[in-house]
Amino acid sequence: MSNKIQNLREYIKLLKDQDLLVETNAEEDAMEELVRYVSYNSMDVKYGTLFICKGTHFTAEYLKSAIKEGAFAYISEEKYDISDLKTERNIPYIIVNDMRKTMAYISDKYYNQVWDKLNLIGITGTKGKSTTTYFMKAILDDYLKDMKKPKSAVLSGIDNYDGVVNEESHLTTPETLDLHRHFNNAVKTDIEYLSMEVSSQALKYHRTLGVNFTVGCFLNIGEDHISEAEHCDFEDYFQSKLKLFNQCETACVNIDSDHVERVLYEAKKCKRVVTFGLNEKADIYGYNIATSGNSIVFNVRSDSFDEEFKINMPGLFNVSNALAAIAICYSLNIPLKNIHAGLKKAQVSGRMEVYTNLNKDLYVIVDYAHNKMSFESLFASMKREFPNKKITIVFGCPGKKALARRRELGDIAGKYSDHVFITEEDAGEEPLMKICQEIAEHVEEHECKCSIIPDRKEAIRQAIADADRDTVVLVTGKGRETRQKRGTKYIDTPSDVEYVQEFLKDK
Fold it and tell me: How would you write 101-115 as a 3-class SS string?
């Protein structure tokens, strides 16, 4: 599958038709030049590139570098002074009034709406997106194996796989141009299904604008991502999530979600609505939930089946994610045998991974839990699954985003833990100790033992070293991620799983 090469005139017309074009200096002959490539990365430019100027830290130097490498025109919200750049011709500029929308339309055009050749599943919610996405991948891969077809693609906050690229992800939902590139890779490798997380940021800032999902799934809503860099308040966050229903054929909705009446009202925009949950009014109704070791069994009733299912990972909250996956598969007519098999096999990298020492008397659980809803669910599940054990937790909060988490996570951890270790978790451009101290204030309100250890490796080592057989150690927030954001850069580090495995050898 390749993009349809078009000239610059067609891109300018597109932006004009969408009321995005402010001005351009492209003359008649320049308009006839072919757009052979589109990029916003000055390190990824080739002959015939239409270059997109974006980003908080973007400067004219990036544009000059792109032009030297082969960019023949640029799109921006402002004109850049490149007069000192010696070129044989004028560089056409296209000035727009909304770069995010522009990127969506340009990407969609360059890749010729390639997403339309996929069965596209979009999953949103405050918690559970990654787990539900990987439940879907496991089920679809089992189904596709029976059909002797390539395994499905996945785009998540954990990993991206599109048939060509298999990588650890940087964003929950990729930037628009990268997103369409993943779609294109999937189609050209004969992939038919792609499951992806759709974040509130992606919906608010138009990363998925113009894309239509075969199924859109709404898991839940809770207050999160409130900051100057994300959402100004809960209403903005909620409205952003609800935008998913503007662009999907079938909506799957968790009937147990907060504000479900409003969610269902918005879901009516879709041709079909399927509900799931632990309420017997749900189309996909889960009941008789029980734990069995590190597994969970539960029954599911719909208008066409009433059967027992099993997932081989702890965390009772994962039943809701499994019900979401079952509802999506029900909508896609995936056979029940593949749903059963997929859920049994499903493992989510860095999500509720249980590790123990040689004596099997110390449990350490690694999980991505990082917001209020996921913390509440995690502690509630631990109290039910390990009722007589103390809880130690290692976690931190990111810099300059979701600022309320410092209070919320500190409060929850202080209330339910016996010892809290606060450490680094993508502090970025904000002082790490400032973040840790703000969290500690709320932990200490509960007279809970609290230790600030900025070095994440040392924090995990100390938490495991101090734990006894009556303790469960939770290491949350990073899972199998192998980077820390320090300043504006991502620095390679071992994952939490690697640290845990190393230190458990000494217990």
Answer: HHHHHHHHHHCCCHH
For helices 260-267 and 234-242, give the axis angle rounded to 10 degrees.
Answer: 40
**C-alpha count within 13 angstroms, C-beta hemisphere, residue 218:** 38
Q: Count other C-beta atoms under 10 Å from residue 34's C-beta.
A: 12
Confidence of residue 344 (pLDDT cuts 50, 70, 90): very high
pLDDT of residue 3: 63
- The residue type of 39 is S
Lowest mean pLDDT among 87-101, 178-192, 444-458: 87-101
Sheet holding 390-395, edge to edge: 353-356, 363-367, 471-476, 390-395, 419-422, 449-452
For residue 336, give the DSSP letter: H
Other Cβ atoms within 10 Å of 199 Cβ, number: 22
Task: Find all residues with CB under 8 Å of 148, minimum gap 6, and list them.
Answer: none
- If you average pLDDT over residues 225-246, what whole number do you get? 85
Q: Which amino acid is at 435?
A: I
Cβ atoms of 144 and 341 within 8 Å: the answer is no
Angle at 348 between CA 251 and CA 175, to 5 degrees: 60
pTM, 2 dp: 0.87
Structure confidence by residue, pLDDT tens digits, 25-43: 998 888 889 999 999 999 9
Residues whose CB falls within 8 Å of the CB of residue 180, separated by 6 or more in sequence, listed in order: 107, 108, 110, 111, 114, 115
Q: Tokens 């109290």 map to which residue?
A: 383
Q: How far apart, in whole angstroms, are the C-alpha atoms of residue 50 and residue 63?
A: 11
Distance of CA 228 to the CA centre of its chain: 20
Helix axes 99-110, 8-17, angle to 10 degrees: 130
Q: Mean pLDDT across the chain, nearest whole number?
A: 93
Residue with the two structure tokens 């989510």: 348
Q: Which helix (H) or strand (E) holds 308?
A: strand 306-311
- What is the SS3 assignment for 278? coil
DSSP annotation string for 355-368: EE-TTS--EEEEE-
Q: What is the rounded CA–CA span in Å between residue 221 and residue 244?
A: 13
Distances (CA, A) of 340 to 193, 325, 346, 426: 18, 11, 10, 37
Instruction: Indicate whether 2 pLDDT > 80.
Output: no
Q: From CA 260, how far away is CA 277, in angstroms rounded?
A: 11
